[in-house]
Amino acid sequence: MAMQPIIEAHDLRKDFGALKAVDGISFSIMPGEVYGFLGPNGAGKTTTMKMIECVSPRTAGDLTVFGLDVDNNPREIKRWLGVVPQDTNLDSDFSCIQNLITYARYFGIMGEEARRKATDLLDFVQLSEKRDVLIEKLSGGMKRRLILARALVNSPRLLILDEPTIGLDPQARHLMWEKLKALQTAGNTIVLTTHYLEEAERLCDRLVIMDQGKILVEGTPADLVRQHAGAEIVEVDHSPDVVSCLEKMGVRFEVFGDIVQVFSDHPKEVATRLLSTCNPGKVFVRRGSLEDVFLSLTGRALRD
Amino acid sequence: MIPLPTTSSWKVWRRNADVFFKTYLVNFLLPVIEPVLYLLALGYGLGMFVGEIDGIPYVHYIAPALLAVSMMNSSFFECTYSSFVRMYYQKTFDAMISTPLSIEDVIAGELLWGATRSLIYTSAMLVVLIAFGVISLPSSLLVIPFSFLAGLLFSGIGMCFTAISPGIDTLNYPAYLFITPMLLFSGTFFPLSVLPPVLQTAALAILPLAQAVIIARSMTLATLSPLFIYSMAWIAIATTMFFFLSIHLMKRRLVV
Prior knowledge:
Structural class of chain B: mainly alpha
Helix content of chain B: over 70%
Order of helices and strands of chain B: HHEEHHHHHHHH
Order of helices and strands of chain A: EEEHEEHEHHHEHEHEEHEHEEHEH
Number of helices of chain B: 10
Radius of gyration of chain B: 18 Å
CATH topology of the domain at 232-287 in chain A: Alpha-Beta Plaits
Number of strands of chain A: 14
Radius of gyration of chain A: 23 Å
Largest sheet of chain B: 2 strands, antiparallel
Distance between the termini of chain A: 46 Å
Oligomer: heterodimer
Distance between the termini of chain B: 19 Å
Mean pLDDT of chain A: 90
Strand order of the largest sheet of chain B: 1-2
Number of strands of chain B: 2
Structural class of chain A: alpha/beta
Number of helices of chain A: 11
Low-confidence stretches of chain A: none
CATH class of the domain at 232-287 in chain A: Alpha Beta
Shape of chain B: globular
Helix content of chain A: 25-40%
Shape of chain A: elongated
């Protein structure tokens, strides 16, 4: 039985005046998948999320969510979406529980059902003891967790998270990851954007790396690392000797400031030869990561 | 086809009502104090020197104007500064349109809430004016439903300014250049007939508060003004216009 994709985009475009924020991207996301959008600032990730959320109309291309066109069926689609936006837009006039109950009402969930859901969700995100506390008294991590709870109030079929752990300390980030993992295990379809590569590596089944409105690569984190960075990477202190040595060995390498990175299928051999013949400073062999893929594809120049 | 707001607007209305009634003492009592002060200072203080206008005691003359001003202030300021804070600083509208609510529902809910505030404040003032014995009964009770309609008009006008205002500071322009002059030159504290004919005509043609004063005065004095039907039609048409215009402008601002 062929499963129908939850989201399907074909040649999707969004222009803001002359700026091509999203420049012809195609992807399809299957039920139960955790799908990541990575990219530097201004890559078009948030714009893509807003089009999926039916709040920003596309300029061209096809985009369906749950098999429905986003322009024609926003209400039906939004009924089944849970959204964690990048900006914390909790209702600062209300306490935690009132935030959830009020938000539930927007979905037509009211009365005892809303109260029960709100209570359960506060428990799920470990905010039960903050039940009647006003939003301004919460820490950054608590606010993000409350937003996650709010996104779940309508039992969504698709959860969209735009930078879910932005600005959080490591403890708060790990707690958030734990909650997302639990949702993933329960079979939820999750789309997330992030520029924390560790987060993508931990959570995503598949991901794309975007830059300047285009998708550069798509795949599982492990495949992308293998294809674009190599399973292991040799790092060695930069010196003219080392560079000429590596040139003689005929391996691919890049110089980043004081460090030379060598990409090779035989990293241990490279390291051994460097040590025995080139008189290097320090030599490291480490696992390739998504960060290596990201930097090699999008470059090292600052974006803003 | 232009998408219209739906009955889901009440959820937005309800959100604002919940916030309002959380702190109802502050919300209720303070705004009623101001018109009482006006009534005492102008109605009885200044009224000592003015005596009567068109055979009506001065305090009776300004009582309906105070009601009309309260309809204007309570709704206009709700849908300018308060709506702007919700839209721009609290991002409440962004959160709402991520749910099945549409932007049309959200703005319609805000406008209906502005109208409701007008009804709440005007009703509270009505009680005060009845206690002072300066308005006729039962005709004055018609002011209650009318305050909702007038409130919807001023909400719509306010929301248009909110939609085009770059920042919260620039909302001071309509507050000082539109609301304050209108407060003084709408037949509120002195009859329009003392103005030069050109200004009289202009006031009757363009000032929404002038219409509200004419209607409120007809109700509290139980004397139908010859302009009653004109003003009522003016308000009905303008309310419809500004209701849809403000939704259109807000949509242009928020949906990009």
